[in-house]
Amino acid sequence: MTENEANRTAVERMIAARPWLVGVGRASEVVPGFEGRMLLHAGPPIEWERMSGPLRGALVGAALYEGWASDAEEAEALLASGAVRFDSCHHRGAAGPMAGVVAPSFAVYVVDERTHGGRFFSTLNEGSGKVLRFGAYAPEVLDRLRWLNETLAPLVDEALRATDGLDLHATLAQMLHRGDEGHCSSLAGSLMLLRHVAPAIARSAAPAATRGRALEVLGGNWLAILNPIMAACKAICDAGHGVAGSTVVTRLSRNGTDFGIRVSGAGERWFTGPSQVPVGPLDEGYGQEDANPDIGDSVITECAGIGAFAMAAAPAIARLVGGTPESAVRSTLEMYRITVAEHPDFTIPGLGFRGTPIGIDARRVVELELLPHVNTGIAHRQPGIGQIGFGLVRPPLAPFRAALAAIDA
């Protein structure tokens, strides 16, 4: 099989993937191999000593949530001691936004891929601002997490199981026609999720106040659908992995220190380089020097051909991340140059319903020195503070060169 044939095979498998959101479960019960004192995190594997502030902060919060420590100082000592095992979300079929931390007691969405098989996971979205995924761990952050995991999660699980689940492939296609790009802009998709689960939540046996708050929280979070979409995009990208000779990128991810990629024909090896600092509008009182290097698994959306690759479908989001409607269109048009195909179902009205660019070709990236665009949130460098803005970033070139060298060897 030639490289072009291998790349076409990988992308055809990605396009054929059909992820469905089918339920919500406890991480320790549904995520494979989640045993003992283990915490998952976004990006490629990393040791405590090299972790950035927001990742450390999120891990501290998770240790406090689990009751493994009584305060932040004790939690840091525990995490530094080696008594808690760390692993990448991607090694367990999961995808986590920003710090991406998953603890045993956390609730996770369950996404089944119905073409090739496989089960994928992501936590419930906390909303914006001072939240765990941006490294905050104040008591109110943990209290909100408890309500999401212990009260909202069972209601959403019951609602999803009362139906055949939510077709995330169809949801993504509709989102792109309603002004979302599927990453930083997910309002239309979040309302679709609310529409799908609201009737069953309203009919549940939970107290009226609980049902009302559940609907209010889901309806008020314009990123509510992001986490299931991330799990869906992981399912899409995993479908294209493992094709011998293929230079299609099937993983983009960052942990706040390293930006890592995996390539279809290069096995399970991570290729890494320094994560770059995103640039974009910051909240009042913060400067560029406060921004942490990029962090999170949400770039799996770009890897699947949405997010910044579909910016032409969501020109309004450009202002949020520091661009313009014109730059949003240019972003999508540029990404066609480094991808193998156009998605037949994920289409962009403003481009005459042209399919989104899908299947990043590491060889084209290196030959053109044209790096993928990424939309992202911006975390403060210090643990405990949280989100300070939104912005744009690109990965380093070195991982793409290293991946090609491994395939060509």
How would you describe this protein?
This protein is α+β, with helices and mostly antiparallel strands and 409 residues long. The chain starts with a helix and ends with a helix. The chain has 14 helices and 14 strands. The longest helix is centred in the middle third of the chain and has 23 residues, at 139-161. It has two domains: 15-229, Enterococcus faecalis V583 domain (Enterococcus faecalis V583 fold); 241-408, v583 fold (Alpha-Beta Complex). The strands form five sheets. The protein has a four-stranded antiparallel β-sheet. It is globular. A hairpin with a 5-residue loop joins strand 4 and strand 5 (119-123).
